[in-house]
Design brief:
Layout lengths: L1 H12 L2 H8 L10 H18 L4 H19 L6 H19 L12 H31 L6 E2 L2 E2 L4 H4 L1 H21 L5 H19 L4 H23 L6 H33 L17 H18 L5 H25 L5 H21 L6 H26 L11 H24 L2 H22 L6 H12 L1
Antiparallel strand pairs: 1-2
């Protein structure tokens, strides 16, 4: 009605009085302006009671949030992100619990069905704000050195960073809140998944301060492995309906993939940081230890075990798991080559292409199964990744390396790389019977011949007759 619309407009305009008090010096933020915000909240609550309209509960929640912000300003905690995270978490949990204060009976004036939803939705928003701040602070502090100022803020100075137990406790409270939300409102597993993710982040928070990054990767990988083993164990005792089971399988797929993607992302960032002297600032440099390759291999084995143990993955998720496993193996192999002293882009490319070929051979072994297509896609993706990485590294370090030179090691290695790629596409042609693979293989054979002709020092005037002869032989 028009009256309710005017009342809602008044609720929106009412907080402007707080700005007026502060701007005119009547009541400053430092001098208990939050009390005026508390008075606004009282008016909002009275409005809900008089009009019996649940829409105004959103105004109550907004008013309480604003009042808490003003209180933080009064205490001088505006610049402390830990205070913001704790305050948002307390508000979110309180809103979720207050929802249960309303009676379940729909005959009641203030029934939970009508007046509980605004509190529930507001609690979710406050909970998301809290965990977002917490995750932001921790991620930045983990990847910046102590005392380093980013955007004018010392991310390593907050309570969330100095006291891991405190931050882990916040994650545990958030996990309980998500599970409580799932219990109150069946979200088809979404809130449960967020709760499990919060538990994992609590685990990461505890181990991050006591272990190297490689140790954190190992712990998260072990957590992912236990989760997938738990899925296998509980599958035999599942008595849910087919619809609920399919929904649970879908939620478990992306949650299980996320548990693997977190340690993979950390491993990928560590390898990027280990290359920091090339382009990145010096403070971002990180020297990977002796345990990097073993933990990445552990992650690779875990990803493969997950995709083969989980029989209910869709083709899309199965491909995603195999792609993550292939990328993990490439990271481990690349770091192992660097440890052996073969960090040059040309040698890395020659040594990593066989991984893509092995994935093609694996697709042949699992021919006729649901893994065949996923392994084939992973092989092609691995090949493209290696080639693109070689090109980028060459352009950054040695742009002139693409100019074939006589008796040049780079020219010889590029020729070997071209032959390996040609072998990959010849194998793909035999397995898939697609003509495009034969064209690509022929093109890379020609590129390899060109590299070897240049390496041998043969004059360019002989190139055309040689390629013409080869073309005639193929015809």
């Amino acid at each position: 009605t028009a009256g309710q619309a005017l009342t809602f407009l008044a609720c929106v305009i009412l907080p402007l009085n707080l700005w007026f008090y502060d701007a005119q010096g009547l009541l400053l933020v430092e001098n208990n302006l939050w009390l005026a915000g508390l008075a606004c909240c009282t008016l909002y609550v009275a409005t809900v009671y008089v009009l019996r309209d649940p829409m105004f509960l959103y105004a109550v929640e907004a008013g309480i949030t604003l009042t808490v912000m003003l209180f933080l300003g009064h205490r001088g905690w505006v610049g402390h992100l830990s205070a913001w995270s704790v305050a948002s978490l307390v508000l979110g949990v309180s809103s979720l619990l207050l929802e249960t204060a309303f009676p379940m009976s729909e005959d009641e004036t203030f029934s939970r069905k009508r007046f509980g939803k605004p509190l529930f939705h507001s609690g979710l928003l406050q909970l998301v704000a809290s965990v977002s701040i917490l995750l932001l602070v921790q991620c930045v502090s983990w990847f910046t050195p102590p005392g380093y100022s980013l955007l004018g803020y010392d991310w390593s100075a907050g309570e969330l960073v100095r006291h891991p137990w405190f931050a882990a406790g916040l994650w545990l409270v958030a996990a309980c809140a998500w599970i409580f939300a799932e219990w109150q409102h069946r979200s088809k597993g979404l809130y449960t998944s967020l709760g499990i993710a919060s538990l994992v982040l609590a685990e990461v928070t505890l181990v991050a301060g006591h272990l190297y990054y490689e140790g954190a990767i190992a712990v998260m990988t072990a957590t992912a492995l236990m989760f997938h083993l738990w899925l296998v164990v509980q599958e035999g005792t599942d008595t849910k309906s087919e619809t609920d089971r399919n929904l649970e399988y879908r939620n478990n797929s992306w949650l299980g993939f996320g548990l693997l993607a977190i340690p993979f992302s950390l491993g990928f960032l560590l390898q990027i940081r280990s290359l920091a002297p090339i382009r990145l600032p010096e403070h971002l440099f990180y020297q990977t230890g002796n345990y990097y390759v073993p933990v990445m291999l552990l992650l690779w084995v875990t990803a493969l075990a997950a995709v083969f143990l989980n029989k209910h993955l869709t083709s899309l998720w199965r491909t995603a798991y195999h792609l993550l496993a292939a990328a993990t193996l490439l990271l481990a192999a690349s770091e192992y080559l660097r440890d052996l002293g073969y960090g040059i882009w040309s040698i890395q490319g020659v040594a990593l292409i066989p991984i893509a070929i092995l994935y093609l051979l694996a697709s042949r072994i699992w021919r006729g199964t649901k893994h065949e297509q996923s392994l084939t896609v992973s092989g092609h993706a691995a090949l493209v990744t290696v080639v693109c990485s070689v090109l980028v590294a060459a352009l950054i370090r040695q742009p002139q390396a693409f100019l074939p030179l006589a008796n040049s090691r780079e020219t010889l290695l590029l020729g070997i790389l071209s032959l390996e790629i040609a072998a990959f596409y010849f194998l793909a042609r035999l397995l898939s019977r697609q003509a495009v693979h034969l064209y690509l293989a022929t093109g890379f054979v020609a590129a390899a011949i060109w590299q070897y002709l240049c390496y041998s020092g043969i004059a360019p005037t002989y190139y055309a007759p040689i390629f013409s002869l080869l073309g005639g032989i193929l015809i």
